[in-house]
Amino acid sequence: MTSRTSRSSALHDRIADDLRTRIGAGEYGPGASLPPMRELQAQWKCSDGPVRDALAILKGEGLITVSRGAPARVRIQPDRKEHSIAVTPEVAQAYKDLALRSEAERSSTGTVELSIGVPLSETEFSVTYEHVAANAELANEFKVKAGTDLLRRTYRTSRKETGKLMLFSVSHIPTFLIESNPALLDPKNEPWPGGHWHQLYTVGIEIDRLENVITAIQPTTIERQDWGMDHGVPLLCLRSLSIDILGRVVEVAYSTYPADRTEIRYTQQLTRWPDVPAKSPEES
């Protein structure tokens, strides 16, 4: 790997680029210490200021960790399969079909198992319900008047062993869609076997499709602490619209995932060309 900065660049940028290149080339592997501050100062014939600025850049990029009184280390990347977002028809159908299974099956299989394969017994679950007025954005999504009463539900699932977040989501549903079943307005009934798919099923709503958008956002200090995230790592935000068989948006949900431990898998099914026989490699 070669340096991307020119000699006219600021010294701290050149130091950062040199270290970044060495890390990318494997000279400093995951968990390895970078050269001490004094060694870098001697190498670059500078004061500690440019070196500190260079390390701050790499820390902000999520490449290194810096602790007081200890040398900077190359950050060990988490397993990206900790969170696996599978944007495929098969996965969505599995969630939907769970709503039609027996209560025993729905109670023993939840979002945590289907999403990241962790047994419910190893997790802590909490939820809060609030009634809020629809703002302009949500009113537009639900095709209702601004100020319409919505039920906002905030879900948190943490790992018992560490207390760190594993799943976090916020859901909005127009109250008038679900108020015919009072049980859906009571957080004491959570976690609901079969999730929101079964909740909506109890009021005669069948979800036809999901429309998902994924964006990256910068986490707050509290979010970093809750997830156990290092500096320089963004959050992925999955915004999902649940649309029923009548074409109505019946739920708007937001879920967040640390980008360094999340993989996104999706399938694009293509239509076969009509009347075009497949050729063997020899015929091509």
TrEMBL record:
Residues covered by the HTH gntR-type domain: 9-77
Entry-linked Pfam families: GntR, UTRA
Keyword Hydrolase: no
Biological process per Gene Ontology, one example term: negative regulation of DNA-templated transcription
Keyword Transcription: yes
GO MF assignments: DNA binding; DNA-binding transcription factor activity
Alphabetical list of InterPro entries matching this protein: Bact_HTH_transcr_reg (IPR050679), Chorismate_lyase_/UTRA_dom_sf (IPR028978), Tscrpt_reg_HTH_GntR (IPR000524), UTRA (IPR011663), WH-like_DNA-bd_sf (IPR036388), WH_DNA-bd_sf (IPR036390)
Keywords on record: DNA-binding, Transcription, Transcription regulation
Name of this protein: GntR family transcriptional regulator
